[in-house]
TrEMBL record:
GO BP term, example: sulfur compound biosynthetic process
Domain Radical SAM core: start-end pairs: 70-309
Keyword Magnesium on entry: no
Protein name in UniProt: Biotin and thiamin synthesis associated
Cofactor section: [4Fe-4S] cluster; [2Fe-2S] cluster
Domain of life: Bacteria
PANTHER family tied to this protein: 2-IMINOACETATE SYNTHASE, THIAZOLE BIOSYNTHESIS PROTEIN
Keywords assigned: 4Fe-4S, Iron, Iron-sulfur, Metal-binding, S-adenosyl-L-methionine
Species: Elusimicrobium minutum (strain Pei191)
Transmembrane regions listed in the UniProt entry: none
Record SMART domains: BATS, Elp3
Entry GO MF terms: 4 iron, 4 sulfur cluster binding; catalytic activity; metal ion binding
Length: 458
C-alpha cells in the first residue's frame, strides 16, 4: 500500500473546521455507528472550539457505550528482551545506547515473570521484544510464546498472548501463526516517510515499506488479528490520523477486515534520547483527547488500546473517550516484574498496581475484563467483525467480562475491592443484561465461579 504524502498534506492544508451545522450533521451520522469518511474525519480534526470539542467527546462516549458498554479489557506487557540492532532515535533500546543494561531473558526467567503476572491476576499478556534475538533467529520468540502458555501457577495460566515484535517475512508469519498468538501488533510510528527516514537511521527498521506492508504479509499468512498504531509526537497528528485511516481502508478493501486494535502511544522520556525529551510534534493533552474521541467515532468497531505511558488522570479521562483496552501494573524492562527497573524502554506515567487500576475502573462504573473467549472459540478476523458490526458481540463480551472479573475478585482482590466489585457485578447483571435467558445463565455461571469453577466463557 502507498501513502501519498504530498496529496495528503495538500488536503490537510486546504481543510477547515466545520460550521455548527456541518458538525451536527457529521456527529449525527457518527451516531449511526458506521464510521465516517475521510473528509468528515479531517473536518473533526480541525475543531478547536471548546464547545464543539465537548460535542465530539460526548459522541465518542455515546458510541463507546453503545458498542462496548461499561467494559475495559486489561492486560500486561511482558518485555522479554531489550537487545536491538535498530537505531530509532526515540527509544532507549536503540543499538547505540551503550549505557542500557542489555538482557534477553532465558526461558526459565520468562517463566518466573509469567508467574509474577499470574500472581497479580493477569490472563492476557502482550509479549514485547527489540529486533535482535539471542541465537540469531525467531526461534527465541517462538519458544518464549510457548513458555508463556505452558507456565502454570496455582491453577492459573495466561490465556492469550499478543505480540509486539518487529515486522516479519511471509515465511516467518506462517511460523508465528502456528504458535497460537492472539493479535500481532506493529506500530508504523509515523506514516510520514521523510520523517520516518530521519528517525530510523540504522538497522532493518530503516525500511519504511517493509514495515508498512507487514500487515498485508501477516493477514495473507495465517495471522487473523492485527493491531496498528502511531507513536504520537514524531509528526503532525492530523497527517498521522488521516494516513492511518488510509491504512485501515486499504486493509478493509483487500482483506475484508480492518485492524483488531489501534494503539495510541505518545512519546515518553527514554534513557539517553534527547528526542524523547522534546518530541518534535509533542501532542498536548487536549489534542490527545481529541484524537482518541475522533478515532472512536471514525472506526467504532476497532478496539483502542491505552498503555501506562499515560498518567492515571489521563487514563481515567480516556475511559470516557472510548478506550476499550488498557495495560495495568506494567514494567517495560526484561525481568521487571521479578526484579528492579534497570534497562527500561521508557519511563511510565501510571505506576499503579493492577488492583489499584481495577478499583479506579470500578469507581467509574466499569467492569474490568480479562476475557479471552473470542480468540479461544475462533471468533477472530472476519468472523469477529461480522459479529461485532451488528452489535452481537455484546451478548458475549459483557457476560464474559463479568465472569472473568468475578474470578479475579474471588482469587486476588482485597476486601474493599471485593465488596465494591461484586456490587458492580450485581448491578450490571440486573441493569445491562436484558435477555432473561442470558441473565439466568450469567447468574448460574457466577454461582459456579463462587463454588470454584474457572474459565467459563460464551
Ligand atoms: N522493536 C519492535 C518495534 O520497534 O516494532 C517492537 C517493540 S518496541 C519496544 C514497541 C513500541 O514501543 C514501538 O513500536 C514504539 O512505538 C514504542 N516506543 C519506543 N520508544 C518509545 C518512547 N520513548 N515512548 C513511548 N513509546 C515508545
Ligand atoms: Fe528497537 Fe523497537 Fe526500540 Fe526501535 S522501537 S530501538 S526497533 S526496540
Amino acid at each position: 500500500m502507498i501513502i501519498n504524502d504530498a496529496e495528503l498534506s495538500e488536503l490537510i492544508k486546504n481543510s477547515k473546521a466545520p460550521t455548527e451545522k456541518e458538525l451536527n450533521k457529521i456527529l449525527l451520522k457518527a451516531k449511526k455507528l458506521n464510521g465516517l469518511n475521510k473528509d468528515e474525519v479531517l473536518s473533526l480534526l480541525n475543531v478547536e472550539d471548546e464547545k464543539q470539542l465537548e460535542q465530539i467527546y460526548s459522541t465518542a462516549k455515546f458510541i463507546k457505550e453503545e458498542i462496548y458498554g461499561n467494559r475495559m479489557v486489561l492486560f500486561a506487557p511482558l518485555y522479554i528482551s531489550n537487545l536491538c540492532s535498530n537505531e530509532c532515535l526515540y527509544c532507549a533500546f536503540r543499538v547505540s545506547n551503550k549505557s542500557l543494561v542489555r538482557r534477553a531473558l532465558p526461558q526459565e526467567e520468562i517463566e518466573k515473570e509469567v508467574i509474577e503476572l499470574l500472581k497479580q491476576g493477569h490472563k492476557r499478556i502482550l509479549l514485547v521484544a527489540g529486533e535482535s534475538y539471542p541465537g540469531g533467529g525467531l526461534k527465541y520468540i517462538f519458544d518464549s510464546i510457548d513458555t508463556v502458555y505452558k507456565t502454570k501457577w496455582n491453577g492459573q495460566n495466561i490465556r492469550r498472548v499478543n505480540v509486539n515484535i518487529a515486522p516479519l517475512t511471509e515465511e516467518e508469519f506462517k511460523e508465528l501463526s502456528k504458535h497460537n498468538i492472539g493479535t500481532f501488533q506493529l506500530f508504523q510510528e509515523t506514516y510520514h516517510k521523510p520523517t520516518y527516514s530521519g528517525l530510523h537511521i540504522a538497522g532493518q527498521k530503516k525500511n519504511f515499506e517493509f514495515r508498512l506492508n507487514a500487515m498485508d504479509r501477516a493477514l495473507k499468512n495465517g495471522i487473523h488479528d492485527v493491531g496498528i498504531g502511531i507513536l504520537f509526537g514524531l509528526y503532525d497528528y492530523k497527517f498521522e490520523v488521516m494516513a492511518m485511516l488510509e491504512h485501515i481502508s486499504h486493509l478493509e478493501k483487500t482483506y475484508g477486515i480492518g485492524p483488531h486494535t489501534i494503539s495510541v502511544p505518545r512519546i515518553e522520556p527514554a534513557d539517553g534520547s534527547d528526542l524523547s525529551l522534546k518530541p518534535p510534534y509533542q501532542l498536548s493533552d487536549l489534542e490527545f483527547k481529541k484524537v482518541l474521541a475522533i478515532l472512536r467515532i471514525a472506526v467504532p468497531y476497532t478496539g483502542i488500546i491505552l498503555s501506562t505511558r499515560e498518567n492515571s488522570q489521563m487514563r481515567t479521562a480516556a475511559i470516557e473517550m472510548g478506550v476499550s483496552q488498557m495495560s495495568a501494573g506494567s514494567k517495560t524492562n526484561p525481568g521487571g516484574y521479578e526484579e528492579g527497573s534497570a534497562g527500561a524502554q521508557f519511563s511510565l506515567g501510571d505506576h499503579r498496581t493492577l488492583e489499584q487500576v481495577i478499583l479506579d475502573l470500578v469507581k467509574h462504573n466499569h467492569v474490568p475484563s480479562f476475557c479471552t473467549g473470542c480468540y479461544r472459540l475462533g471468533r477472530v478476523g472476519k468472523d469477529f467483525m461480522d459479529l461485532a458490526k451488528p452489535g452481537l458481540i455484546k451478548h458475549h463480551c459483557l457476560p464474559n467480562a463479568i465472569f472473568t472479573f468475578a474470578e479475579y475478585l474471588h482469587d486476588f482482590a482485597g476486601e474493599e475491592l471485593k465488596q465494591k466489585g461484586f456490587a458492580l457485578i450485581e448491578k450490571t447483571v440486573n441493569e445491562e443484561i436484558k435477555d432473561e435467558n442470558l441473565k439466568k445463565l450469567a447468574l448460574k455461571n457466577l454461582h459456579d465461579i463462587k463454588n470454584g469453577k474457572r474459565d467459563i466463557y460464551l
